[in-house]
Amino acid sequence: MKFLVLYEELASYFLTCLNHLAETSDCTILLYMKKVNPVAPFDFSDLHKNITVIEREKISQEEFIHSIKTFVPDLTYVSGWMHKPYLKTIKQLRLKNVIMGFDNQYTGSLKQILGAIYFKLNLKRYISSAFVPGASQKVFAKKLGFKEANISLNVYCCDHKLYAGYYDQTKNQKQKQFPKRLIFVGRYVHEKGIDLLWESFIEIQNESPNEWELWCVGKGPIDPISHPKIKHLGFIQPKDLLPTIQQTGVFILPSFFEPWGVALHEFATAGFPIISTPKVGATEVFVNEGKNGFLVEPNNKISLKTALKKMLSLADKDLFAMGEESVKLSAKITPEIWKQSLLKLVHGV
After folding, report:
1. Is the predicted pLDDT of residue 333 greater than 70, yes or no?
2. What span, in angstroms and rounded, lies between the C-alpha atoms of 117 and 123?
3. What is the set of domains in the chain, with CATH numbers?
């Protein structure tokens, strides 16, 4: 099978799934991507020999079209329907078996309603299937005109082997002494709730001083706040996270807007209790309220502080037990399940 992938900002977790597909199937993959985002400069050097990755900006439109014609794909995956050069190519070459991946949660907004009408009139005939992460996105896929049989879930999956390995390497140590550190992983942008998290954490420290710290992994346009109990680690490649995972205990992602949030799956796999919001799509699969974490109202400091205080007051054994529940939930999506979900759209089984 020849698999063409037209991607926007490639992340390492998607490449992990492609590697698994190449390793376990007779599959050659040609992947086009946008230039690496400097805010999240993932390393894409660990490629299976059957995968070729090309930055779209480095070749002309003519070279792009020629390479696809030469490749003759049996299957095409396109990330979203907003990148006009990709859509133009799909229409121009009449590519077959085109699967569109997207993570937009259905909200019923006027923009989505009008967008669905436009899609059905102008694009649907060129795209055969939809590959989405969860239930809310599946609702949107149906609004776009896709039938049940032509929709698959599980488009996003973490590097399950890597993070399960982190869990195996740290569980004994954490069972003996649970690390009293929260960890946030993501871009420093308002919609991630990072500034509200800083404010809430500092207020709790002022009201009831305790031993807990907050470690933040990532970078972005919001300047890091300075506080003796808040540590900023910058961007860290997933393969280099072991020392940080060893020293932290609870994952927190208080986003106001997060279509899915693969980082939440990653840290569930690594055995972390979780604090997040229902706006993070991945919570529908990986958070069981009260069992492995707490959900808070988005953009609500009182709700966030309440959950933080509850989590910080738990005994080590209870925190560890919540992490164990996270590990169980994390197995709901793996690279093998991702592969089967993709192939269902190809073979109809």
Report:
1. yes
2. 10
3. 2-157+333-347 (3.40.50.2000), 160-330 (3.40.50.2000)
